[in-house]
Write a structure and sequence with these properties.
Elements: H1 2-7, E1 9-11, H2 14-18, E2 27-32, H3 38-54, E3 59-65, H4 69-78, H5 83-89, H6 99-112, E4 122-127, E5 130-131, E6 134-135, H7 139-150, H8 159-166, H9 189-207, H10 209-215, H11 218-241, H12 248-270, E7 277-282, H13 283-286, E8 290-295, E9 298-303, H14 305-313, E10 317-326, H15 337-341, E11 348-351, H16 353-359, E12 387-393
Parallel strand pairs: 2-7, 2-10, 3-4, 3-7, 10-12
Antiparallel strand pairs: 1-11, 5-6, 8-9, 11-12
Helix pairs in contact: 3-6, 4-5, 4-6, 7-8, 7-9, 7-11, 9-11, 10-11, 11-12, 12-14
EC number: 3.1.1.-
Organism: Plantactinospora solaniradicis
GO molecular function, one term: hydrolase activity
Length: 394
């Protein structure tokens, strides 16, 4: 069996991975099975260098706040600010503390430094402003959108009116609302009014796009549209936070991934003339199947961003799942996918899922992880990925 499995695997290189992908790929999703493990981020950095130098990729997007990501992008494209500033302001979820993320920005800036603007690499976040403790206030995104439009159009809402409706940011960011929907402001009268305003402002942004792009620039309009998507998505998410039904958590998980998919879609369209994009996030956000997890003792399921964007891009979306073998005393059972892949001789491998399925002579059982932050791959759905990247030990 090990010899047959070896026929489906190659030592990890960027070329070995891309050899398994459709030449039509415009968005490559590279998943990770858990956060906070440098081995996966370092592998991502290595892959990006290959994609940029040999495959024509010109951008990367991470599971990080899309608005914060503008600060990191300004640093790597134009050298705005310092690397320390980009790390502190350009990431969410604590990802700015990662040495591998720091090396990512450092390398991208060095690559861009002496290249013309159309050849420079871009950095994006594609998550919403959604920290673990809860969603952000809609103020930054909504007021940035309003200010952009107000500079060129006559609006029937003033900035002061928006600030009055939003009120204190603490009302929106109250961590108690995460578990107690009655503490959320999401369905208060002013929140409902703000949702209508956000919708109207985005409609104006679209209706006046020809004038606005010529009066400012296509890049300025794109950022304004990012603010519009974010404001609408945040207000929708806050409304979901106020939901008192049993499906509340599943709804929130679905809303978050829908926001991610919309951001990925916008990034791919912006980058269409420059090259493909690498997206890096948890496997649960990039896989083509429904995602499953337990939260507060209840099973939850929702369609991932990868599944949603896959319906829009077709074979232009490719997905490479990543998993690992041993982690200290956590050693996978031989009858699991990870246990079987641990028999491979390589420290890091790229596996062809189709060839793997063809040589399997038994049904594999899902791995039960010791660490609750790790989600093992479902051996029954590996054929839904274009490649599997396996790290033998972390």
């Amino acid at each position: 069996m090990t010899a047959l499995i070896g026929d489906a695997a190659r030592p990890f290189t960027g070329g070995a991975l891309t050899a398994l992908l459709s030449p039509a790929t415009r968005l490559l999703g590279l998943g990770e099975p858990t956060h906070g493990v440098d081995a996966f981020l370092e592998l991502r950095n290595e892959l990006l260098r290959h994609l940029v130098e040999h495959e024509g990729y010109r951008s990367i997007t991470l599971e990080s706040d899309c608005v914060s990501g503008l600060a990191a992008d300004a640093y790597v494209t134009d050298g705005t600010g310092t690397l320390d500033d980009a790390m502190s302001r350009g990431f969410s979820h604590g990802f700015g503390a990662s040495p591998a993320n720091r090396e990512l920005l450092r390398w991208m800036r060095a690559y861009n430094e002496h290249r013309p603007p159309h050849e420079r690499l871009h950095f994006y976040g594609f998550d919403g402003p959604l920290e673990i403790t809860g969603p952000a206030s809609p103020r930054p995104a909504l007021t940035a959108l309003h200010d952009y439009l107000a500079a060129h159009l006559d609006l029937d809402r003033s900035r002061e009116n928006l600030d009055e409706l939003i009120g204190s940011d603490e009302r929106w960011t109250n961590p108690a609302a995460l578990t107690d929907p009655t503490r959320s402001i999401g369905r208060a009268p002013e929140a409902r009014e703000l949702r209508l305003i956000a919708d109207d402002l985005r409609a104006l942004l679209t209706a006046h796009a020809p004038h606005l792009t010529s009066a400012t620039s296509p890049d300025d309009w794109w950022r304004a549209d990012l603010y519009a998507r974010t404001a609408a998505g945040l207000l929708r998410y806050h409304a979901g936070m106020s939901d008192t039904t049993p499906t509340r958590i599943g709804t929130l998980l679905g809303l978050r991934d829908a926001m991610m998919a919309d951001n990925l879609d916008a990034i791919v369209r912006r980058e269409a003339r420059r090259g493909p994009t690498l997206a890096f996030a948890h496997n649960l956000h990039l896989q083509r199947d429904k995602s499953h997890m337990h939260f507060a003792g209840q099973p939850q399921q929702w369609w991932s961003a990868g599944a949603i964007i896959g319906t829009r891009l077709g074979d232009q979306y490719a997905y490479a799942a990543t998993t690992f073998g041993s982690r200290g005393s956590d050693i996978p059972h031989p009858d699991t996918l990870e246990g079987l892949l641990s028999t491979l001789p390589h420290a890091r491998s790229v596996i062809d899922p189709g060839r793997l399925a063809a040589v399997l002579d038994r049904k594999l059982t899902p791995r039960v992880p010791v660490d609750h932050t790790y989600f093992s791959l479902d051996p029954a759905s590996t054929d839904r990925s274009d490649a599997i990247v396996f790290v033998k030990e972390i």
